[in-house]
Request: fold
Amino acid sequence: MSDSYTAPLDDSLFILERVIRWDRLFDLPAYRHADSDLAGTVLTEGAKFCEQVLGPINAIGDEQGSVLQAGRVKTPDGFREAYREFTAAGWPGLDMPEEYGGQQLPLTVQVAFAEMMNGACLSFAMLPLMLRAGSRLLIDHADEELKQRVVPKLVSGEWGATICITEAQAGSDVGRIRTLARPEADGSYRLSGTKIFITYGDQDFTEQIIHLVLARTPDAPPGTRGISLFLVPGILFDSGQTNGVRVERLEKKMGLKASPTCVLNLEDATGYRIGEQNRGLNAMFTMVNLMRLEVSVQGPAIGAAATAKALEYARERPQGGPPDAGAVRIMEHADVRRMLLIMHCRNMAMRALVFEAASNLDIAQNGTDEDERRRALQLAEYLLPVCKACGSEAGFEVASMAVQVFGGHGYITESGVEQYVRDVRVAAIYEGTNGIQALDLVTRKLLRDQGARFWILADRITATLAGTGTAEQTAQIHQATQTGLAVLERSTQFVLQLAGEGRQRDMEFIAKDYCQLTGLVAGAWMWLRIARAGADADQDDLLSHGNCARFYAEYLMPEMHALAHRINIDFNGSD
Reply:
């Protein structure tokens, strides 16, 4: 079973078609060359690729890992061949602009494909993430000559890309980076320094790797105000000679062992500045939404893969039952059914929320009404830290629960589920730790514009409540969502009150709980929409939409009261 992967295609298409209503995206001018039928076909083929090509190399990659040989990275068996198939089919350019060789489908389609790719082999999916992030960064900030030279190569997958930010003394505290970029007479720069935690800093898929590096010029001011962005090719463009970029070592990690995490030394490496001097961090911020969205989907991706395996095992594994009769399938045991319900409910809620954020980014980027675009961007910006933090934590919880369903067989490698726990754990750390996501939500997204972003979310939930009846199918989740929104609104007003009183530390202390409360209530909003859209679902199935909506409402939503209590505690010692 360890190399099997079942893509969540049916669940994803249901959410895209009947909950998110992705057909409206294809009415936008940027996407009129396609339609939802074409997008559905694309995802169906994507599911086959992930199941048949990526799924079988996941366990191999974990067992072998990437290794450093003679200064170059060697990836595990099957990874190079999988990458060739990936690029030959045009998958790297799914949502990239047509002018650079992409197919220019909605970001929402790309995210649905990314979920399947991450679920099949998270280590492999890390490189396409770098390709897309690098392409978007260059499209937004590079000069035209450099864009035309580099971006089509990234979009096709012919070249690789990395994002080089972190240094040993500067993790999340980016303002402390020391890598130096000295200007040359010809307009280029010479970069020297060491970058750590560089995903696919080297690989054996592509000859050329484009490193996008944050560094300082000699006269730069201290802190984040003195950071510039540079493009450093692994192979010099004109001469074809090796540039001054060297892999010092590969990190030994808890998971993602096939994805090489490199320590890179830059030794007078030739680079080219991207954008304005001392504005490099601002340039990087333009892809925050993209990177955060891509990492957000990793939790549901691993969660879906783990749930599929646990469900299959529970339906097949005989254990327990009356002593005078044959053993029953563990699916019949109440505790196993409880775990499967938690796993599926958490996962579907977060998948739908990530797709909701993606569709709003599509509208924000390509909508025709200015006010609609503004509101869509504000809503997406509010949801993304919630998606990243709550999605990654749900993914880890679900993967751990899958091990529990398997019992002792889950703890050994043969089942393939313990790898999910190790691989997904880092999703709560990189692309901004979940604590940083919570701080971003409370101290930036909530407080900016007097809470306008939150009230857009509240208005959307209120509209769904008003448009949903209280039939048996939706009664419990309707009431839970309504109660949850009221609790969230009161908690939001309390956070705003803390801000008005200048109680910054108190706001920071409760940020994590506020983020979790927002994710829980937003998940109820998603399940309300799922239950409304799936009123004709088979109610005899344990994981039917109606059954799961009720379970989310009655079993999971009471967590909101504990979260709200924590948020409203007076930290001087009284309630």
In short: The first helix runs from residue 9 to 19. Residues 73 and 203 are 5 Å apart (CA to CA).
